[in-house]
Design a protein that fits this description.
alpha/beta; Rossmann fold; six-stranded mixed sheet; 6 helices; 32% helix; globular
Length: 219
């Protein structure tokens, strides 16, 4: 990645490279982690290194990131490769799942009599007790994205954050209801690239996982 940033070019599309953090500690797999500030697993650190190698070939003009440890640990190898300094934004943190936090999907289903495959519908409607609603999530994420697009016209910007936040960004840019983003898989250390043209948004890369061929010692 080039250390020298290009000047904004309003005639070129603005590209957002959306990156989810790597795999987290095994004890937090398949739970609603949300505001829990967990670390990456050893495999997550390997994913972060593979991600950094992939992004080395992409010129990033700016980087915005969640302050949470799992994101910062994912981003660290990227920064070591000569990427531009990050700007940490608290409002890029993961969704607050309220009373669901720390529970797995089966526990949520049993305790709250819900279908967990409809979790995005539940978030949108504010079903999780003491949790963040879809409108609340949008209210904190949308201003960030609008500012990034405005301030980096024609540039390529990395946004390192969380699965729920990436879904909200896609909802905003693609003009989809949040629950409709369940059609997209957002994997650990997955990369999604969106090109923003004057009249439309174009998905150029969806959930690309540069770590896919890494050996998995968990098997």
């Amino acid at each position: 990645m080039s250390e020298k940033n290009s000047k904004p070019n309003p005639t070129a599309p603005t590209r957002l490279i959306l990156v989810r953090h790597g795999e987290v500690e095994v004890s937090y797999h398949k739970i609603f982690g949300g505001k829990i500030d967990m670390n990456l697993s050893p495999r997550g650190h390997d994913q972060a290194k593979a991600l950094a190698a992939f992004l080395r070939g992409n010129k990033l003009d700016a980087i915005y990131a969640s302050p949470m440890k799992r994101v910062q640990q994912t981003l660290a190898p990227v920064l070591e490769n000569g990427a531009p300094p990050q700007k940490i934004l608290r409002d890029l943190r993961e969704v607050d799942f309220g009373d669901w936090t720390g529970m797995n999907w089966e526990q949520v289903c049993e305790k709250f009599n819900l279908f967990t495959h409809e979790w995005l519908d539940h978030i949108e409607r504010g079903v999780a007790p003491n949790g963040e609603t879809g409108p609340q999530l949008r209210a904190r994420v949308e201003p960030i994205i609008r500012d990034i697009v405005k301030n980096h016209a024609g540039q390529t910007v990395g946004v390192f954050c969380h699965g729920g936040v990436i879904r909200m960004i896609l909802s905003i840019l693609l003009k989809l209801p949040l629950p409709r983003t369940n059609m997209f898989e957002i994997e650990y250390a997955g990369v999604t690239q969106i090109a923003l043209h004057p009249q439309h948004a174009e998905i150029e890369l969806l959930n690309f996982t540069p770590w896919r061929d890494l050996p998995d010692d968990r098997q």
